[in-house]
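seq as requested:
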Amino acid sequence: MATIVLPLRRVDIARTGTALPLVVGLVGTLLSWFGSGWDVSWHRLFGRDTFWSTPHLFIYTGVALWGVAALIATVTAMAGRPIRGRALVLGPLRAELGLALIGVGALITILAGPFDNLWHSIFGRDVDIWSPPHLAGIAGGAIGLMGWLAATSPGVFPIDERLRRLLRLFTLGNMCAVSVFALNFYYITSVAREAFFYPLLVATLIPATLAISTIALPGRWAATWAALAFTVIALIGYVILSATGWRAPAFPPLVIAGAVAIDLLRARGGRSASPLALGVGFAVAFVAAEFLRMLVFAPPAPTSALGGVEPRLTALYFQYYEQTVARPWLSIWPVGAAILGAPLAAASWVVGRRVAPALTEDLHSEALAHP
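struct tokens:
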């Protein structure tokens, strides 16, 4: 009897240690995704609020569920569950690389919360995404999402192949979303999107994820699919917030134009698929798309109510608007952005291609042998 019960127990542990983290983690991702967008709208309407604001509760509950998912995977692995992929071992702690990265990302993001409160107690309340605790939280979210990408490698979770690819696409879209969120006021309002630094930042951040997508989702249109996933995710948040009376962030950057250019150049092969050529393609296509959009849908000049009840927020908006006036789209600035953005996009692409194997090849030959 014992010889029968032991294998059954190992099967139960294996199922619990993989299926449950997936469900818990997906719920956490949805909560933190919605909370992040809502938090920006909340601050625009009510100013800097208590740490226990409703959007913060969404964010940190979601991130905490990431931590729970990683904890379940770690505890069951320590109890004898076979590791289904490359392992990350730290003393007695062991788990799949992807699930371990999810836990690391969750820990960094959660620790950014008290760091944020300490920062405010020392330097006062800030209204800027580019503060050290906010950037730490963004970095934690990015690490966690890279963990999810690794965790959705073939065989890690016992799921259908179509669902696995859909989850990877969802994760890649969210990785782009984190990069766009890190754009600060360029993410919040289109008024701030001047013709030079805004495209340079996009060229620096987005191609890395597009490069990862070409390995995570093999196929001719991998980068385009990742950019489309980001656009759909961003538009869903935009519609939800707008329909419920909240101030939605700006319309998502047209990174899909750069992604299409990358995929077309990749299909040609040869020198057209070199990092520099892909960087040129992304930078030129993105700048051209944003140039056309800014001409057709030029944002209105800001008003004193743009920052809601927070005077410093309104003041920052006007500072960014001054930069928009100084670097307009109908000028030489977009040309300079395309020229300088090309090598930045190429470098970002190279980084993504070097990081991708560690995230997408999380499976060794023994993993598929485990139930």
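The longest helix spans residues 2-46.
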